[in-house]
Specification:
13 helices, 19% strand, 5-stranded mixed sheet, Sulfite Reductase Hemoprotein, domain 1
Length: 384
C-alpha cells in the first residue's frame, strides 16, 4: 500500500478530496457554456464515465445564466473556472461545489485592488455558498511579481505563488481549499508538486500536466508525472488533459482511472525522464473557450507534418484560445494559438503574424525548417 501524504479533507459536493479518501478523477466540459443542453449532456457523460468533479468555464454574465440551467440538468459535482473576472464568483457560487481561480490572472484584474482583498472576497463567497476553492497555478501564467523574482526558476515561482495564496486563505480562516501546480513539462510538474508537498504537506493537491496534447503521447506524459508523484503519496485528485473532439472527452476520465488502477495494483510502466532530445508537441485540452473546433484537427495535422523533425529538441505548442494561448506559448520554440478565423504564430515570444487555418501549416513548416537550420547549419531539411 502507498502511504498518502497526511493532507486535510476538503469536501467538494458529494466527494471528499484529501484526508486519505480515494483519489478523485476530474475532467472539464469542452462545449461552449452558453450551449446549455450540450454542456449539461457532456457533464453527465463525464460523470457517468467516472469523473468525481466536472469543471465548467464561466467568463460572462450570459454564461452565469447558462450555468444555473446546467446545474438543474446534471447531478455532477461542479467546479467553476474563473479566468476573465473573479467577481463572477458571487453569482456562480450558488450553482457549483468548487470555485477555481488562477493567481496570475487574479493579479491582472482590478490591479488597483490588493490581491489579498480579492482572495478574501473569494473566500467569503465560497464560505457563504458551501463551496471549496482551488488555487490553480500554471507555469505559463504565473503572477508577474513571482516571474520577475524567480526569472530563471519557473518552478520556484509557481511554488512560491501557490504558498502565498494558501497563506492568504489561511489568514481569513478559510481552509477548504486545494492547490494545483501545472505545466506542460512532466518534469516541472513532478518538481513543483514535490517541493510544494514538502513545504505544505497538509494541503491537498490536484495533479495534472496541462496541454499534455493528443493521445497516446498526452497520456504517456501524464502517466510519467502521476506515477512519480502518486507513488510517493503526493496527489489527491487528478485530471488527464487531452486534446480531443467533444464526443471523446470522457476518454480523459477513463485514462485517469486506468492510471490509478495500474498504480494501485503495482503495475508501473518504465518511467524514464521525458526525452529532452526529441521533438515535443504540446497542445491544450479542448475546452469551452476554444473559438474554432478546427483547433483539434489542426493539432493532429501539426503532429503529422512535423514527424520529419522528431530527432530535434524543439517544442511546438498548439493552444486553442486567446485566454491561455498568448502566455502559454512563450516558452515554446514555435507557438500557435487559435482564434475564430486565424491562427497566431510565434517564434519564442516574438509574434510572426496571424494566418488563415488553410495557410498556417505551410508557414509553420517553413519556420520549423529555419529553426532546424540555425541549430544544425549543415543539415538539410527532410520536409521536402
Amino acid at each position: 500500500m502507498i502511504e498518502r501524504n497526511p493532507t486535510r479533507a476538503v469536501p467538494v459536493g458529494g466527494v471528499v478530496v484529501g484526508g486519505g479518501h480515494p483519489v478523485v478523477v476530474q475532467s472539464m466540459c469542452a462545449t461552449p457554456t452558453r450551449e446549455v443542453e450540450a454542456t449539461a449532456t457532456q457533464a453527465e457523460a463525464l460523470r457517468q464515465a467516472g469523473a468525481g468533479i466536472v469543471r465548467i468555464a464561466v467568463d460572462s454574465r450570459k454564461e452565469v445564466d447558462a450555468l444555473a440551467e446546467i446545474r438543474q440538468r446534471t447531478t455532477a459535482n461542479l467546479s467553476v473556472d474563473l479566468q476573465e473576472s473573479y467577481r463572477l464568483a458571487a453569482p456562480v457560487a450558488p450553482h457549483v461545489d468548487k470555485v477555481r481561480y488562477n493567481p496570475g490572472h487574479l493579479w491582472h484584474h482590478e490591479k488597483s485592488r490588493p490581491v489579498a482583498d480579492k482572495v478574501a472576497f473569494l473566500a467569503d463567497v465560497a464560505g457563504e455558498n458551501d463551496c471549496a476553492i482551488r488555487i490553480g497555478v500554471n507555469c505559463g501564467s504565473v503572477d508577474p511579481a513571482y516571474g520577475d523574482r524567480f526569472r530563471d526558476d519557473p518552478v520556484g515561482a509557481m511554488v512560491a505563488s501557490a504558498a502565498e495564496h494558501c497563506e492568504l486563505l489561511d489568514r481569513v480562516g478559510f481552509t477548504r481549499f486545494v492547490v494545483s501546480l501545472k505545466d506542460s513539462d512532466p518534469a516541472k510538474v513532478i518538481e513543483g508538486n514535490r517541493k510544494f508537498a514538502e513545504r505544505l504537506p497538509e494541503v491537498p493537491l490536484h495533479l495534472g500536466v496541462t496541454e499534455a496534447g493528443l493521445p497516446p503521447e498526452g497520456i504517456i506524459k501524464t502517466r510519467i508525472a502521476f506515477e512519480q508523484l502518486l507513488s510517493r503519496g503526493i496527489g489527491d485528485t487528478i485530471r488527464v488533459s487531452l486534446t480531443l473532439p467533444n464526443p471523446r472527452k470522457p476518454e480523459e476520465v477513463v485514462a485517469g482511472h486506468d492510471i490509478l488502477r495500474d498504480i494501485a495494483n503495482g503495475r508501473f510502466r518504465s518511467v524514464p525522464e521525458f526525452p529532452k532530445d526529441r521533438l515535443n508537441i504540446i497542445s491544450c485540452p479542448s475546452c469551452s473557450r476554444v473559438e474554432n473546433e478546427q483547433f483539434v484537427e489542426l493539432a493532429e495535422e501539426v503532429r503529422e507534418i512535423t514527424r520529419y523533425a522528431e530527432r530535434h529538441a524543439i517544442t511546438i505548442a498548439v493552444m486553442g484560445c486567446r485566454v491561455n494561448g498568448p502566455g502559454e506559448t512563450d516558452d515554446a520554440d514555435l507557438g500557435l494559438w487559435c482564434g475564430p478565423a486565424f491562427v497566431n504564430l510565434k517564434r519564442g515570444r516574438k509574434a510572426l503574424g496571424a494566418f488563415p487555418y488553410d495557410r498556417i501549416l505551410d508557414r509553420l513548416r517553413a519556420e520549423l525548417d529555419r529553426l532546424i537550420a540555425t541549430r544544425t547549419p549543415d543539415s538539410v531539411s527532410a520536409s521536402g
